[in-house]
Specification:
Elements (H helix, E strand, L loop, with lengths): L2 H15 E2 L15 H19 L4 E5 L19 E6 L2 E13 L1 H5 L11 E10 L11 E8 L5 H14 L1 E7 L9 E5 L3 E6 L10 H5 L1 E5 L5
Parallel strand pairs: 1-2, 6-9, 9-10
Antiparallel strand pairs: 2-3, 3-4, 4-5, 5-6, 7-8
Length: about 220
């Protein structure tokens, strides 16, 4: 499929999942994207599908400024589009793209007001507590996802293991914020879900550590 066809398909998925808004408000995919960033947008749509179908959240696209999805790392900027998750009519969480989070090491030493360059990291996609701004702390993150439109290797495995280390401690099983998908329990404190996606089936060769650290590895081709 061409980039244009993929973008149209992603936009249609988002429109089908979300409530409210004029048709043009669902056109949130930036005009010019690398295939890597387009893959992130595709995985975003797939995650929203699971949150709607498996977790039964109502999803509202908040895009009052008619901007495109954030595609460069930084703190949460509420001028950009986000997807709010509603349960029983109340917003409980928000889904953001390309945000930075405060590392566990920074959070534990209570240095969140003035973190150094090594004390915050980017996430491709994140589900966080509703109303959070700036860089969310590990206890505010429900789900984090990393998306790789490339072959998978040991370097990428070490990267996702490093993200898990800066999100939580290994622990006994704790309840996540989800009932079914992606996990109801995770061996981590705080109990965030961490997902790794790749267009390469080779990602499955590196998935074994996920059983211990509570990471889900998915082979997801860019073929919507």
């Amino acid at each position: 499929m061409t980039k244009r066809e993929i973008k149209q398909r992603i936009t249609q998925i988002i429109r089908n999942l979300c409530f409210g808004g004029a048709a043009r408000s669902f056109d949130v995919i930036p005009r010019s994207l690398t295939y890597g960033k387009l893959y992130e947008a595709y995985i975003l749509a797939r995650i929203l599908e699971q949150l709607r179908q498996a977790e039964h959240y109502n999803i509202v696209l908040v895009n009052t400024n008619q901007l495109k999805l954030k595609s460069a790392p930084g703190p949460i900027n509420r001028n950009y589009p986000r997807f709010d998750l509603l349960a029983n009519g109340m917003a409980v969480a928000s889904v953001w793209t390309d945000i930075e989070f405060t590392s566990l090491s920074c959070f534990r030493v209570e240095n969140t007001a003035n973190p150094s360059l090594g004390e915050y990291h980017e996430l491709d996609i994140a589900v966080v507590d509703y109303g959070v701004y700036g860089r969310p702390t590990p206890d505010q993150i429900w789900l984090a996802a990393e998306c790789k439109n490339t072959g998978y290797n040991k370097g990428l495995l070490k990267e996702i293991l490093g993200i898990r280390r800066e999100l939580s401690f290994v622990s006994d099983l704790n309840a996540t914020r989800f009932r079914n998908w992606p996990r109801a329990q995770v061996p981590a404190t705080p109990p965030s879900c961490l997902l790794a996606y790749s267009t390469s089936s080779g990602i499955q060769n590196y998935s074994a550590p996920g059983n211990f650290f509570g990471i889900n590895f998915y082979y997801e081709p860019l073929t919507p």
